[in-house]
Structure formats: structure tokens, C-alpha cells
Specification:
heterodimer, A: 79 residues, 4-stranded mixed sheet, B: 379 residues, alpha/beta, FAD/NAD(P)-binding domain, 5-stranded parallel sheet, 4-stranded parallel sheet, binds flavin-adenine dinucleotide, FAD/NAD-bd_sf (chain B), NADPH-dependent 2,4-dienoyl-CoA reductase (chain B), oxidoreductase (chain B), sulfide:quinone oxidoreductase activity (chain B)
Chain lengths: 79, 379
């Protein structure tokens, strides 16, 4: 667990299939202020690659990816 | 005691389910032990896939619509009212016209509602067109008929959207349609998609790449529309794209009934195998309104109805329901105006897209006619 990272917002996209988790994250990032840390919960294996690629493309910051067994938590900071 | 089965929504999921239940439970209905009711706010059943053909003058709105009374088994009661409230504790629903109906089993089949007003570039006074509603599809027909030069952009703006195939088909049909009209050389076509490949379903994306190249359809990925002004789209990723005609795939939401009745935060939350509500007893969901981890497509409603009918019929007969839904999804994909293909997958089965051919194009057109038999529960 990334105990040092505190998310301001959480998007629970477990159970949603590709491209659902990434699109849910994009929807949230659109709505929040700069500097906000969003935690995306996703069970989709593809998210591990898709999300970092988009974060780089859109110039946000990828803080960490936690593997919780059943799902991943991906921390992204809006810049 | 009569078991009252109430279905909210007379679209694909609701109609197929009602017709198959009437067939399955015929003896119980005849004996007065079961009553089936559809409550729908549209007296007509709409076959929405035909909206894709309306902009090209290949189908009319009349082709896509039939009175529910002509499609639904005579043993099913029809109530044409808008449902405003669902109370899952007292097991009753209320309508705008003031009716109250009690149920023993409730099936939610209210579909997904396009939100062009909420979608950048679409909606009244906005430049973008779409084909997810009757007037919009007709307006696009006029716009296309008057378009013989410039840049056409097909942009997938919102997800999840209904029908994973339609955004793939539109650019390919429009390409060939312009060629047939002899104006293709004066028109550029660009397709945009929010993630890093051309489609959410990977094999579909891979199938699209060479086809779009062959047809000179340009594409932009990681393209999340943020704002649209004066013929320019700006994206969340900081890109800009000019257009003369924009066609967008809007965002969709579930009916507000879902959230108000505590049936889900956004989409109706159901067990992906049993279709039972995660939040209320004896409540089921079918079709686009659900959060099933597959596409919002008519075929999903069609296949899921088999499971739903079997489970409800078992409950009514006092048996343990055993049927489960495996997520089966099939979508035809038009690859222009003369060839087509299809994609098939399930929760645990990877999608496969086959090469397109004329036969599958004609199969899709044939199915569009035969659909009314699906709605009737015949096939
Ligand atoms: C342009 C387009 C192309 C498509 N192409 C394809 C395709 O090629 N293949 C495919 O498989 N699928 C396709 N689809 C998707 C397909 O149409 C839907 O998946 C299917 O209609 C879902 O059925 P449903 O019963 O969930 O919802 P719908 O068919 O939308 O029915 C919902 C019903 O609920 C009623 N309703 C809603 N709210 C209330 C309320 N509060 N009270 C009472 N009644 C209410 C509505 O009036 C309607 O009758 C396409 C859709 C569109 C728009």
C-alpha cells in the first residue's frame, strides 16, 4: 500500500471493463481542481498500461500503482 | 395468489422478456396465477439500430418504429405511462399519470438515454450532429446531403455509449457513400477516440487500422473533447482539430429512477450472471440500463432475456433458478455500404473479428428486417 499517498477523490471502477476505468478517471480529472489526487480502483489488467499512457499524454502526474490482489489502485495528480 | 411481474420499458429488453415470459408461463397465465405487465412511456417500440441508416437515406424513422400492441403477446398487459417512482420496500411503482402498480417481480428495462446537451459540441445551438435520436438522425441526413466539400469529423465523445459498432461503421459508410456521390476527393474524414487505440475492444481496434488506412480515413487517439467552438475542437490533452461537419457520439445516462430508487449510483447495479439487483429483492435489470461489464447492445439484452425469463419462471413455479448469463455479445459491423462483418465475445471469451464480406452485410440488412421476430420472442 502507498500509505504516504492520500487521495482527495476516489473513482471505483472495479467491475467495469475496458475502456471504462480509464474513461471514468478522465471524467473525474476533468471535474477536479489542479493539484487534486485521484485514486482509481480498477480490476482491469489493461488499466495498468492504459492509464499511465494517458496520464503522460495529458501531462498529469502518475504517483503510484498499488496491486491489491483483486484490483489495482492507481494514484494520479492533476497538474 | 397471483404473481405480478411488472416490466418497466417497452424497448428491446422489455419486449423480448415479456413475450418470452408469456410463452414460458402460458399455463400459469391461463390459470390466473401469473400476470405480466409492461409499463412504457412510448406506445411504440423503437428499433434504434436503424437510426444509423437514416442519415444516408437508407431507412426512415417509420421503418424503425412499430406499435407495441402489434409486437406484444396478447396475454401481456400494456400501460403507456411514464414511471416516476419505484419503491422496492412496498414493491410498488408510481407513474406521472397517477397510477400505482404493485409487483412481486420487477424488471427494469429503461435503456440508456443520450445526453447531447451535456456533451461538448452537441445539443441545441451547438455545431455538432449525432444519430442517436430521431430528430438528430434526420437533421444529420440534411447536413450530409448538403455537404460536398470540407472536413468531416466523427468523434467518440462519451463512454459508455450504446452500440460499440456504430462509431466504427459511420466513418466507413460515409466514406463509401461520398465515393458513390462522387465527392469523396473533396472531403477529408477524421475519426477520433478517447483512448490510445481506435476502439475499446482491442481486436476491433486492430481490425480498423488497415481498413481506415485503405479508405484514407484519418484518426486521432487520446482525443477527449473538452470544448467545441467556431469549427474547432479542443481536447483535454491540449490538441486542436478544425472541422466543417462534426458528428459526435454523445454521453449516455441511465434513467434517474435508478438512483432515486437506490438501485445504483449511476447504472443499475446487478449481478452479472443472475441479473438480480445488488440492492433490492425480486428486482432484475436487463439491457442498457445495467452496469453489466459488456457492451450496451441489443444483442446483450436479447441473450440476457433468456436467462432472465428462465430465472423468473423458476421463481414463479417455486423452483430454484439455475440459469446464468455468460455475457454473450454479438455486433454486426458495416464496413462500408457493401460489406460487413461481426464481432462476438462473452465475459470469459476474447473477442474475434472476422474479415468482412458481402454476405455479412446482407445478413445485417436481413437481420434489420427480421428484428421484429426477435422482439416478438420468436428468434
Ligand atoms: C444508432 C444506434 C445504433 C445501434 N446499433 C446497434 C447494433 O447494430 N447492434 C446492437 O446490438 N445494438 C445496437 N444499438 C443498441 C440497441 O438499440 C440497444 O442496446 C437496445 O435498444 C437496448 O434495449 P433496452 O431495452 O435496454 O433499451 P431501449 O430499447 O432503449 O428501451 C428502453 C425503453 O424504456 C422506456 N422508458 C425509459 N424510461 C421510462 C420510464 N421512466 N417510464 C416508462 N418507460 C420508460 C423507453 O420509452 C423505451 O421503450 C444501437 C443503438 C443506437 C441508438
Amino acid at each position: 500500500m502507498s500509505e504516504s499517498i492520500e487521495a482527495d477523490e476516489t473513482v471505483d471502477a472495479r467491475g467495469s471493463a475496458c475502456p471504462g476505468p480509464l474513461m471514468d478517471l478522465i471524467g473525474k480529472i476533468k471535474d477536479v481542481e489542479e493539484g487534486t489526487v485521484v485514486a482509481l480502483l480498477t480490476g482491469d489488467e489493461g488499466s495498468k498500461n492504459d492509464v499511465p499512457e494517458w496520464v503522460e499524454e495529458a501531462n498529469h502526474e502518475l504517483l503510484d500503482i498499488d496491486d491489491n490482489g483483486e484490483y489495482y489502485t492507481i494514484y494520479v495528480k492533476k497538474t | 395468489m397471483t404473481a405480478r411481474i411488472v416490466i418497466v420499458g417497452g424497448g428491446s429488453g422489455g419486449t423480448i422478456t415479456a413475450n418470452r415470459l408469456a410463452e414460458e408461463l402460458e399455463p400459469q397465465i391461463e390459470a390466473g396465477e401469473v400476470e405480466i405487465t409492461i409499463v412504457s412511456d412510448n406506445p411504440n417500440h423503437i428499433y434504434k439500430p436503424l437510426y444509423l441508416y437514416v442519415p444516408f437515406g437508407e431507412a426512415t424513422l417509420e421503418d424503425a418504429s412499430r406499435p407495441l400492441v402489434d409486437l406484444v403477446d396478447h396475454r401481456v398487459n400494456l400501460v403507456f405511462e411514464h414511471v416516476t417512482d419505484i419503491d422496492t420496500d412496498s414493491k410498488s411503482i408510481a407513474t406521472a399519470a397517477g397510477s400505482e402498480l404493485e409487483y412481486d417481480y420487477l424488471v427494469m428495462a429503461t435503456g440508456a438515454i443520450p445526453q447531447p446537451e451535456e456533451t461538448p459540441g452537441l445539443g441545441d445551438d451547438e455545431p455538432g450532429h449525432h444519430f442517436y435520436g430521431p430528430e438528430a438522425a434526420e437533421d444529420l441526413r440534411t447536413a450530409l446531403a448538403n455537404f460536398d466539400e470540407g472536413h468531416l469529423v466523427l468523434s467518440v465523445i462519451g463512454t459508455p455509449h450504446v452500440c460499440p459498432a456504430a462509431p466504427v461503421e459511420f466513418p466507413m459508410i460515409v466514406d463509401q457513400w461520398f465515393r458513390e456521390r462522387g465527392v469523396r476527393e473533396d472531403i477529408d474524414i477524421t475519426y477520433t477516440y478517447p483512448i490510445q487505440r481506435l476502439h475499446g475492444v482491442r481486436p476491433t481496434a486492430e481490425w480498423m487500422v488497415p481498413r481506415f488506412e485503405e479508405r484514407d480515413i484519418d484518426s486521432k487517439t487520446f482525443f477527449n473533447v473538452d470544448s467545441v467552438e467556431d469549427g474547432t475542437i479542443e481536447t483535454l490533452e491540449g490538441k486542436e482539430l478544425d472541422f466543417d461537419l462534426m458528428v459526435g457520439v454523445p454521453e449516455f445516462t441511465a434513467s434517474s429512477l435508478v438512483q432515486d430508487a437506490g438501485l445504483g449510483e449511476e447504472w443499475m447495479e446487478v449481478d452479472r450472471h443472475t441479473l438480480e439487483s445488488d440492492h433490492a429483492e425480486d428486482v432484475y435489470g436487463i439491457g442498457d440500463v445495467t452496469n453489466l461489464p459488456t457492451s450496451k447492445a441489443g444483442s446483450v439484452a436479447h441473450y440476457a432475456s433468456g436467462t432472465l425469463v428462465s430465472r423468473i419462471a423458476s421463481e414463479v413455479r417455486g423452483q430454484v433458478p439455475t440459469a446464468t448469463f455468460d455475457g454473450k455479445t454479438i455486433c454486426f459491423i458495416e464496413a462500408g455500404t457493401e460489406e460487413g462483418t461481426f464481432i462476438e465475445f462473452a465475459y470469459d471469451r476474447e473477442p474475434v473479428v472476422r474479415d468482412e464480406n458481402r454476405f455479412l452485410h446482407w445478413s445485417k440488412l436481413g437481420y434489420n428486417e427480421a428484428y421484429w421476430l426477435t422482439a416478438r420472442g420468436v428468434m
